[in-house]
Amino acid sequence: MQQADKQMSRPGVLSAVLSIFNTSVGRKVITGLTGLGLVVFILGHLAGNLSLFIGAEAFNAYAHKLESLGPLLYVIEIGLLAVFVFHIVYAIAVTSQNKAARKAGYVQHGDAGKPSQKNLSSQTMIYTGLILAVFIVVHVVMFKFGPGMGSGYAYELHGEQVRDLHRLVVESFKNIWIVLGYCAVMLLMGVHIRHGFWSAFQSLGAYHPRYTRLIQSAGVLLAAALALGFFVLPIYIYLFVELPTV
Ligand code: HEM
């Protein structure tokens, strides 16, 4: 009898967990958590890309180190892709659920005790987010799946031939249109993260007045640091880095 109960309860627990994902609060929590996860990735990505300021050897060595993770890198990449997909799908669901509720007159702005954060940044989240999603696809095709050693992008690193990712990045950022496109997207990314960071903490229940200012300021600082870091790189390369001689 007890055995039967256990067997019955397993799918019950699973469906209870899944049904939390499907509540309006659950969707917001997932959007917030995955968004914060992406911010951690973007911080790490910026830290790695700062080696572009040092030069070809430092950047190619960094990229090669990542490559050398082998199967672990695939696991990380699949995890990252899953976080991106969950973030986008749940963010779209939250936006349409908010829209539907507003249409039906259920939601008033400045809702239920939480401080309202209605501004340009908050109202354009879905658009800045979708632009970022398109950017990431183009960006990954351009660099990750761009030309490799077989196409002559090879670099000798401590006696070993590795992919010359530095040359690919520098060649790309010698094109003014690519530089302008990147800079524009980086500004939008700053706007997205600024509100997203605040909103994620709200969804996780951190809207005590004592923390409001702190979270807002942290969001502004983080967004500015990330946007500026990624913004400066293409401009620096365009202006100051010489195209490598092949
Ligand atoms: C100046 C700005 C940027 C530069 C120079 C840059 C450079 C690169 C390079 C060279 C790669 C290929 C790495 C490899 O094949 O080992 C890459 C991959 C990637 N970048 Fe960026 N990136 C920039 C901004 C961004 C931003 C703002 C995001 C996200 C919002 C982003 C997301 C990604 C993702 C998701 C990958 C694929 C990671 C992987 O699968 O291993 N990048 N980036």
> Strand share of the residues?
under 5%
Question: Do you know the CATH topology?
Answer: 3 helical TM bundles of succinate and fumarate reductases
What is the gyration radius calculated from CA atoms?
22 Å
Q: Can you count the beta strands?
A: 2
What is the spatial order of strands in the main beta sheet? 1-2
Estimate the global geometry from the Cα principal axes: globular
CATH class: Mainly Alpha
Mean pLDDT: 88
Task: Profile the largest sheet.
Answer: 2 strands, antiparallel
Q: N- to C-terminal separation?
A: 75 Å
Low-pLDDT ranges = 107-113
Q: How many domains?
A: 1
| H/E topology pattern | HHHHHHEEHHH
CATH superfamily: Fumarate reductase/succinate dehydrogenase, transmembrane subunit
Count of DSSP H/I helices: 9
Ions and ligands: protoporphyrin IX containing FE
CATH architecture: Up-down Bundle
Percent in helix: over 70%
